[in-house]
Design brief:
- The chain is of the alpha/beta class and 267 residues long.
- The protein has three domains: 88 residues, no CATH class; 81 residues, no CATH class; 70 residues, Rossmann fold (3-Layer(aba) Sandwich), CATH 3.40.50.2020.
- Helices cover 51% and strands 12% of the residues.
- It contains eleven helices and seven strands.
- It is globular and about 50 Å long.
- It starts with a helix and ends in a 10-residue tail after the last helix.
- The relative contact order is 0.10.
């Protein structure tokens, strides 16, 4: 269990990372100043294990943000602007009456397509080939990629579950395994395309509902998770390996607060 002071430090760290991302985005996209500053920040305990918004508040998970920041500041900037784009394009308000899984995928793909077209160092992560291929296929039907247009196309194509899973993994912004449906379907798709073994990894193992049973019965040979969430009973039987992160997070927090580089942690 984390004591209140540790929780407070993680919360402050999350706000500091978000503020840094917002400031960096403002330097490149000053015309988005109102949108970038529109959301208040709040810890996402019980709301999200990555980033989420209700249109008024940006909820965040401190460890998730720290992990993204340690990988690259580009990822925190992209995640921040990804959420802002959902608000600007009114994706939340338009969800009513749509299939949640397809609508969420369509919104993520539309937001990522915008990010991948913005030529700024703070956003330049390089689009994966799977994403580029999907953009090209969609542009045969629509000149501009919108969530509504992508949603209609996905409905019309009626893709099998494993192909939906592939797209979800390509466009998903967070790194958590919740009910494990998407990751197990993606693993099955890899096997069908010729893989001999599949290993999976994620940052946060929520593992709710049928997740453990799905992983246990899947073709995944081993799943590696960080212990940002305590290990669930039965995880070992489901071939799940937990890696500790306390030491590297503590060192990263200390370095960020002291304005020291975090790159030595990985050298």
């Amino acid at each position: 269990m984390k004591d209140s002071s540790e929780v407070g430090q993680i919360g402050q760290l999350g706000q500091k990372i978000l503020s840094a991302a917002r400031n960096q985005l403002y330097m490149s996209l000053p015309y988005l100043d109102a949108a970038l500053c529109a959301l208040a920040f709040a810890p996402g305990g019980g709301v999200t294990l990555s980033l989420a918004t209700d249109g008024e508040t940006l909820y965040y998970d401190g460890p998730w943000l720290a992990d993204r920041y340690l990988r690259s500041r580009v990822w925190t900037c992209r995640a921040y602007l990804h959420v802002i784009l959902h608000c600007m394009l009114r994706h939340l308000a338009k969800k009513r009456g749509k299939l949640p899984e397809l609508w969420d995928l369509s919104c993520d793909a539309a937001a990522e397509s915008i990010l991948d077209e913005l030529d700024y160092p703070c956003l330049n992560a390089g689009a994966a080939p799977r994403k580029r291929k999907f953009y090209g296929e969609c542009k045969r039907d629509m000149p501009v990629l919108t969530a509504e247009g992508i949603y209609r196309r996905l409905l019309r194509l009626n893709l099998p579950e494993y192909e939906i899973a592939q797209l979800q993994r390509a466009f998903l912004v967070d790194d958590m395994v919740d009910t494990a449906g998407s990751i197990c379907n993606a693993a099955q798709a890899l096997m069908e395309f010729g893989a001999t073994e599949v290993y999976a990894c994620a940052t946060h193992g929520v593992l709710s509902g049928p997740a453990l049973e799905r992983i246990k019965n899947s073709c995944i040979k081993e799943m590696v998770l960080l212990d940002t969430i305590p290990e669930k009973e039965g995880a070992k039987e489901a071939r799940i390996t937990m890696l500790p992160v306390a030491k590297v997070f503590a060192q990263a927090i200390e370095r960020i607060y002291a304005d020291k580089p975090v790159s030595p942690l990985f050298s």
